[in-house]
Design goal:
three-stranded antiparallel sheet; eleven-stranded mixed sheet; single chain; alpha/beta; Aminopeptidase
Amino acid sequence: MFEKIIQLNGREKGTISIVLVGVHGDEKCGVEALEKILPNLEIERGTVLFGYGNPRAIETNKRYTEVNLNRMFNRNEQFTTSEKESYEYGRAQFLKNYLNEAEALLDIHASSIPNSKAFAICEANAKEIVKFFPINLVVSGFDKVEPGGTDYYMNSIGKVGICLECGYMKDPQSIKIAEESVFAFLKARGHIKNNLIPQKQAYVRMFKKYFAKTDKFTLSKLFENFEVLKENQLIGIDGQEEVKTSKQSLILFAHKGTKVGDEVFLLGEEKESLV
């Protein structure tokens, strides 16, 4: 059911865009938003592709089946033999065919951390699109600290990649944010009439991603996304080692780690603009 890419064409020629949902199969807000949007959607100009990122993970309600699909868009030499044999790697190659066709991407996600706020992940090349999104926070720097996502891939081939985090995955509001953002994306891209006004938005740039060095990384506490940490504040214990901040920072996606190499948190800082 979720395998195929859906293509909608406008009456007039225009740009080509792609919307992905369910790249992580347990993040259902985008899937549910498309169920509401697609039956009655009419495109006026250009072409819009709609895709379900990880069909097997969506059907089993899991983040992924073998490996994280949203790390499979990196350079090929980055992957192990077992990763290249995974379902997710093959699915990434399939999706790349459509990403290569499009000029801009919106990839919809949600967080497993309660009370998470909605925000966009992008670089400066997306500013004229995300300014219309129903969010007040835009985060950059992911291409450098966390390469391998769909948005990273688009930026790496000279196109525009946007990842939208719609808040807590179990909050019904995340579906509404996903739905409104799909329409904002289509309007900003010229596929349907744009009657939106730009939002006032704040900016954060990520500068560090921490990977667990041992099989046991425990957080010093549960951190909310974008919680402010002081300089030299304890984040967690990695085996026997204390992990602290080097300067005042904002923490994002903080989780415990159970094996070496687990992604356990990111750090960022406020910026005046999307740079």
